[in-house]
Amino acid sequence: MSPTPQETQTMDETIRFQDPLALLHYLYNDITRLSKVVSADIVLHPFYSHSASIHGIVAVQAWEEALVAATDGTLCMAVTSISVDGEHATVDGVLRARKQGLEDLEVGFRGRWRFLEGVPVEHWENVLGDADGATVKWFKDAGWKRPDIGSVVDSMGDMGIQ
């Protein structure tokens, strides 16, 4: 989805949306756009564990780019619904990815977002129906490695995320 007339772009290249629905559609069309639309102090609660958060735009952007890179750019997050309630939003959809030598990945996701003054400040990634950790295993088998960013919580390594 291309930017709408309701958006404005500031000098630092951050895109501000008046409508959170438009922002989320824009973001899920290409998750690597994250740094263009979220707070510099964004907090991400990653899909493999919500007890280990990732703090700051640099670390969160690196996280998302590493996921896309592991799929050789095939990662697609097809949105099926978005609901906005005040400063919170929920995005449901299907995550799809391909990697040579692996079965195609197709799994439901639910993203929860918290906004402050129209800007995303917190995000919870959820993979639906994945109690056995198959999605984490798929990404590891695809060659995904935790980005080496200083602001990423150290306990990720303790949880087997390398």
Automatic annotation (TrEMBL):
Name this protein carries in UniProt: SnoaL-like domain-containing protein
Organism listed in the record: Xylaria bambusicola
Domain of life: Eukaryota
